[in-house]
């Protein structure tokens, strides 16, 4: 082939590839559509849908705000919202210390919610009627509590000093079952294995992702992979597939792990921003939702333990922090999933739909 034809063909191929890439991203963006928005009174950092029966249309938003005055103070709020109402205006709200994470218990027939707070307090709340009612609390330490998770009647909590705490939440005394310090820096995230109540995972600013069997001596646990270059911020076990774990990091990667083989991840993709929260779609488990901080929210399809970008929601103008799926699968019988998300400094709470059928 003459050289000028080869150069021209190369440029044409490059143009075609660029047009395909642009078309792909347009399709990915068009799969996500804003439904409702609300301006929260405080900076927003976490969202959780209720998994219990008649309350599945309800979700709770948690707030964390640093008030700079003569004495800096961290304040927070919990607000209850319903996706079936005409707006996202809160049905009710309660004041608290600044909230870092919230989780609903899934093992009860009534909606019970935990919040972990900047004051070191772990609190239990009930969603009853159209109210959020206080149940019990326990100050676990004087550090900041960063994340929590449930398995049946036990809860795991992580702290800013790198400690982990296991609680018995079957009574209002909230008895501490065990506590230990496996990390050298902030333990950003703790999560139970979805199939085995004895297996626990944690991730930290010390760049370590660790796994523990709570029946054994706890200590440092088992390190998954090599120590990374940046902090581990998010972990979630797959709702159906045994031994499949997703993790996210400040290094902007989302990884999948087979927890039977801890040497290296089985899949890795880039989220374009720190992967602060990861949530598997709970009904079918075929999609993974990521809050990517400076780069919006993304949905990855999961097939044969491979991740592919399926949708992106870029309508927030600040740090993408909190997100969760509507727990009932397709919303209102349509071929669409429903997501709630919040971002920090613009105090924005959104609901939006995602459909892979849009093209």
Write a compact overview of the structure shown.
With 359 residues, this protein is mostly beta strands. The protein has one helix and 28 strands.
Describe what this molecule looks like in 3D.
Strand 3 (58-67) and strand 4 form a beta hairpin. This protein has one helix at residues 3-30, and strands spanning 32-39, 44-49, 58-67, 73-82, 92-97, 99-104, 112-117, 121-128, 131-139, 145-151, 154-159, 164-168, 175-180, 189-192, 199-203, 209-213, 222-223, 232-237, 244-249, 253-258, 267-270, 277-280, 287-291, 297-303, 306-313, 320-325, 337-343, 348-354. Strands 1-28-27-26 form a four-stranded antiparallel sheet. A four-stranded antiparallel sheet has the order 2-3-4-5, with no helix packed on it. The protein has a four-stranded antiparallel sheet with strand order 6-7-8-9, with no helix packed on it. Residues 9-17 have low confidence and may be disordered. The protein has one helix and 28 strands.
Strand % is over 45%
Low-confidence segments, given as residue ranges, are 9-17
SS class:
mainly beta
Main sheet: strands, sense, barrel: 4 strands, antiparallel
- Give the topology string: H per helix, E per strand: HEEEEEEEEEEEEEEEEEEEEEEEEEEEE
The whole-number mean of residue pLDDT values reads 91
How far is it from the N-terminal to the C-terminal residue, by CA?
A: 38 Å
Rg from C-alpha positions? Answer: 21 Å
Placed side by side, the strands forming the largest sheet appear as 1-28-27-26
Helix content: under 10%
Strand tally is: 28
Count of DSSP-assigned helices:
1
- The global form is globular
């Amino acid at each position: 082939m003459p050289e000028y034809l080869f150069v021209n063909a190369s440029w044409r191929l490059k143009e075609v590839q660029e047009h395909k890439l642009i078309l792909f991203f347009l399709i990915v963006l068009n799969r996500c559509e804003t439904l409702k928005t609300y301006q929260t009174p405080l900076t927003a950092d976490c969202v959780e849908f209720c998994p219990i029966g008649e309350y599945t249309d309800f979700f709770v938003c948690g707030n964390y705000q640093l008030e700079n005055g003569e004495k800096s103070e961290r304040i927070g709020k919990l607000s209850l919202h319903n996706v079936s109402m005409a707006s996202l205006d809160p049905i009710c709200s309660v004041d608290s210390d600044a909230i870092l994470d919230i989780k609903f218990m899934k093992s009860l027939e009534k909606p019970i919610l935990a919040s972990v707070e900047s004051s070191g307090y772990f609190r239990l709340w009930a969603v009853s009627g159209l109210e959020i009612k206080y149940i019990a609390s326990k100050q676990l330490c004087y550090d900041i509590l960063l994340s929590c998770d449930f398995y049946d009647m036990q809860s795991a909590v992580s702290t800013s000093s790198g400690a982990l705490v296991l609680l018995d939440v079957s009574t209002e005394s909230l008895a501490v079952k065990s506590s230990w310090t496996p990390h050298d820096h902030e333990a950003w995230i703790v999560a139970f294995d979805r199939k085995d109540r004895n297996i626990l995972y944690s991730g930290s600013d010390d760049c370590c992702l660790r796994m523990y069997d709570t029946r054994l001596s706890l200590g440092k646990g088992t390190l998954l992979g090599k120590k990374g270059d940046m902090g581990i911020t998010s972990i979630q076990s797959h709702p159906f597939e045994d031994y499949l774990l997703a993790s996210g990091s400040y290094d902007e990667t989302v990884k999948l792990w087979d927890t039977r083989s801890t040497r290296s991840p089985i899949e890795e993709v880039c989220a374009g921003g720190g992967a602060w929260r990861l949530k598997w779609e709970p009904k079918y488990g075929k999609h993974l939702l990521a809050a990517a901080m400076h780069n919006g929210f993304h949905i990855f399809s999961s097939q044969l333990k491979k991740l592919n970008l399926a949708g992106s929601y870029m309508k927030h103008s600040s740090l993408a922090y909190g997100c969760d799926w509507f727990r009932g699968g397709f919303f209102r019988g349509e071929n669409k999933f429903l997501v709630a998300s919040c971002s920090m400094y613009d105090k924005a709470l959104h609901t939006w739909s995602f459909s892979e059928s849009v093209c």
